[in-house]
């Protein structure tokens, strides 16, 4: 029995050894330890989803709970900009458990970059990263001056001259009229052409072209407007084909007269008529043709049968279907002034009081940033309200029953300035050197920016066309735009239409209605030229007095 017992014990021992051998760690699959990202820093700070004002050679540090497999970094770590992949260098610390990423060369200023690390990154144990991470950052503004220093007077001249090229070099080759924008082809704008006509007068005054050259261009423009351009009750459409003169519909029902755009055009033509005052046959004939155009506009027709208000649109195919009354406060004061100044189809003061002014309903009277706003919507609305009508109308010491217009425009500009300086939405880049909200292109569209419709887009025309109202603030901004941001926003026709430092985004567009006020209002600030010419027209004096305006210029 003892022998059998020993045999059994030996057999059990053998089975035990066999079982232990079968469950050896060398034969069973193992789960590597978890590989995870413990912390991330961008130049020593934990990054948010968006990061601004980042240096040109930022340091991105990623700390893991294990050693990084260096062979997996290139496929897992990406640094990109809108231009594509950005080359970077990778280094290691803390026994290869920290990964340090830096751009291979300094980054460009004001550019958005995307950084990401994916789960394809592995540890030396073979474990994949549990979860990746990503964030964006925008590099800081490069403060180095982009162009040589000029005197303030030289800088103003340079801006006017470069902006002038939009209307002179880029004017339509057939009609001479201003294209709507730099990508418009044959589409020209009646209102923007009015601005362009005033810009030509300023260009002659500054010596950018000779008087003879300017006269020749004006003759082309005026003949086209008189003999070829399509009109409706004497009024022009918003858009025309610059080669044929046929209306180009602005929208489905906006295929006829646009009275506001027509008033901008007439403002320019009257200014040119007053400028070209020579006794020779060429200038005399030009003035006669301008009078023909001016006198055939049936302003009173646009009261729609005698209502006490002007209407914006009329079409022979859809009549008054647009049904937009021209009521203040907005950009259309000039429309009522031109309508009252007409010697052929004038409106009465009652149309101005009841229609435009709503018998005082356009008053505001509230204070914003401690600045009282006489007229208009909260915070004043977009700044073009203080520009378009006042390219010709001199607001200095101008009053009527409703406002002091010098105060109105100055306070409007100062409210806009203080809003951007205060920057309640916290947009990157807004400051006392980067301000100005008005209608302009935005990324993917167009909007009328204002303190109550602020999408983070600055339009250079806003601050620069406000020079007569805010000369100190506008000059500081001009210098910043030109010297500091000039590599981004200073192009062949002056400053681009708009930009956003928060995106960042820089328009590739130029618009006639934004470029024109820059050259014109800078000239009014410098010499009062366009104000003096327009306000010298006898009809304008009579019309404005009839509406109740008072001014030393009347």
Automatic annotation (TrEMBL):
All copies of domain SbsA Ig-like, residue ranges: 46-139
A Pfam entry, by short name: Glycoamylase
Superkingdom of origin organism: Bacteria
Keyword Nucleotide-binding: no
Full protein name: Periplasmic beta-glucosidase
Lineage of the species this protein comes from: Bacteria, Pseudomonadati, Bacteroidota, Chitinophagia, Chitinophagales
Keywords assigned by UniProt, alphabetized: Signal
InterPro entries per record: Glycoamylase-like_cons_dom (IPR019282), SbsA_Ig (IPR032812)
Domain (Glycoamylase-like) ranges: 325-537
